[in-house]
Design goal:
By secondary structure, the chain is of the alpha/beta class. The protein is built from 14 helices and eleven strands. It has a seven-stranded mixed sheet with strand order 1-7-6-5-4-2-3, with helices on both faces. A four-stranded antiparallel sheet has the order 8-9-11-10, with helices on one face. Helix 1 packs parallel to helix 3 (about 55-70), helix 12 (about 355-390) crosses helix 14 (about 450-469) and helix 13 crosses helix 14 (about 450-469). The protein is globular. The protein starts with 6 loop residues before the first helix and ends with a helix. The protein binds pyridoxal-5'-phosphate (PLP).
């Protein structure tokens, strides 16, 4: 047996698979956005096809596509108001497909020079777009978690030039990371995986605008110094995951400089708004950080997993990730050429950059700008609709994230309503607690979501809340 398909079967398969995919991509709204799962049924379905024999490809492909169709929250659906998961834009789907076929190896420059240079070009374009005045360096990552981990490793190597050789045990104090209590838990996970431990993460409480409280930040730094700890880095968030809040990046930058700390900005979600001329002031100061995380598989609507780590420090990625091997090609010695495997966490790596290059090349920055502006604007429309229907909005951001409830709701009422709506398949939204009280959280992540979808959402909310009052 071989793994090959002849050209006749390939043509047949591609035609069939593309017809099924096109039906989904063109009409996600014909599905329920989500439903109540029967775990046993799904497990059984997933184990239905045996590997002890070969199986007809048509049947297997139908099985997989049917499984995804039946048993998934449909993030490309216009009534998906959930986490940051996008509907993938078409150009970026093509990019993933082209990448899978050519399968360029992005470990070494010399194996895929064109792909590598496309990635450099995109990194530089992003640096300019978000306002890096000086030099820019960076790398593509699988997601914000990897990009934030990269930032922490860079901060460690910047502060302790012997870090890679001697490790944490050679340090004469505990390095500390400061971030707000609303920041993403990938920071805690990175602290775990670097060996710093979660005790290294100081979660600074937020003020009434859900921004890191800077008085408490300074107090905590002083306290840590008194305890013999080493202030390593401060991580500001530009667009918190729950509420879309943006820390005061300019003031945090001043504090970071005062204490010689690395300043990383986690803009996994909110970084996209920096590319809109009209709304970039929402994240002003994003250009001040030593480094920044910007996810592509959130607001830039590319398939997972794709994120960008950018830094102003031209040397730090090389210092942090360089290793010498006998068997890898030695392109790194050549001036101006970057070998990703000595410049990032991953080794063998997919051509991630094409997923953003292709939509940018086809639609231009203006394509994204129009999309982002429109999402910001229809979120405002939704706020107005909610307010005029007696809902109260608990967060305050221009980003399309809206957390709301009703004044008369007790304890878990909002949670129950959201659960019922999600199980009904009429819309999908999440719950986010503010000061211990649950709110419904709606995020407009789909570039196809329009006013009709918003009216539908408000109607559904009204119907389900009337049932419980
Ligand atoms: C989503 C998110 C992350 C994690 O990014 P992944 O792409 O899921 O790995 C980190 N920080 C913030 C602020 C996020 O919203």
């Amino acid at each position: 047996m071989s793994l090959n398909f002849d050209d006749v079967s390939r043509t047949h398969i591609v035609r069939n698979v593309f017809a099924l995919l096109e039906d989904y991509y063109a009409n996600p709204e014909r599905r329920q956005v989500a439903k109540d799962w029967d775990m046993r049924e799904i497990k059984q379905y997933a184990q239905q096809i045996e590997f002890s024999q070969s199986n007809p490809s048509d049947a297997v492909l139908r099985h997989v596509i049917e499984g995804l169709d039946q048993y998934a929250v449909h993030t490309p659906h216009p009534n998906y108001f959930g986490l940051f998961n996008p509907r993938s834009n078409f150009a970026s789907i093509l990019a993933d497909l082209i990448t899978a076929v050519y399968n360029p190896q992005l470990a070494a420059w010399s194996h895929a020079p064109f792909a590598n240079e496309i990635e450099r070009f995109v990194i530089e374009a992003f640096g300019k777009r978000i306002g890096y005045a000086e030099t820019v360096d960076g790398t593509f990552c699988t997601g914000g978690a990897e990009a934030n981990l990269t930032a922490i490793l860079c901060a460690l190597n910047q502060a302790f030039p012997n870090f890679n050789e001697s490790g944490l045990s050679a340090l004469d104090g505990q390095p500390m990371i400061f971030c707000s209590s609303e920041s993403h838990h990938s920071i805690h996970k990175a602290a775990m995986t670097t060996g710093l431990g979660t005790k290294a993460v100081q979660s600074i409480p937020v003020d009434k605008n859900f921004q890191m409280d800077l008085v408490l930040l300074k107090q905590q730094i002083v306290q840590d110094l008194e305890n013999g700890n080493i202030p390593l880095m401060v991580i500001g968030t530009a667009g918190t995951t729950g509420l879309g809040a943006v820390d005061d990046l300019k003031s945090i930058n001043d504090i970071a400089k005062d204490y010689q700390m690395w300043f990383h900005i986690d803009a996994a979600y909110g970084g996209a708004i920096a590319t809109s001329q009209q709304y970039k002031s929402v994240v002003s100061g994003i250009e001040l950080g030593d480094s920044v995380t910007i996810d592509l598989h959130k607001w830039f609507s590319v398939p997972m997993g794709a994120s960008i780590f950018l830094t102003k420090n031209r040397k730090i990625l090389h210092q942090t990730f360089s290793v010498k091997t006998a068997y890898m090609p030695k392109d790194g010695d050549v001036d101006q050429v970057v070998d990703p495997y000595v410049h990032s966490i991953q080794w063998s790596r997919r051509f991630i950059g094409l997923k953003i290059y292709l939509p940018l090349a086809i639609h231009g920055w203006q394509g994204y700008e129009q999309t982002i502006n429109r999402q910001v604007e229809i979120a405002q429309l939704l706020r107005d609709k909610l307010l005029s229907n007696g809902w109260i909005i608990r967060n305050n951001t221009l980003m399309p994230i809206i957390c709301f409830t009703r004044p008369e709701f007790q304890d878990q009422e909002m949670v129950e309503i959201v659960n019922e709506i999600n199980a009904s398949g009429k819309a999908w939204l999440s719950v986010y607690p503010i000061d211990g009280k649950p709110t419904a959280r709606v995020c407009i992540t789909n570039y196809l979501t329009d006013e009709a979808a918003l009216d539908h959402l408000v109607e559904v909310l009204e119907a389900y809340s009337l049932q419980t009052i």
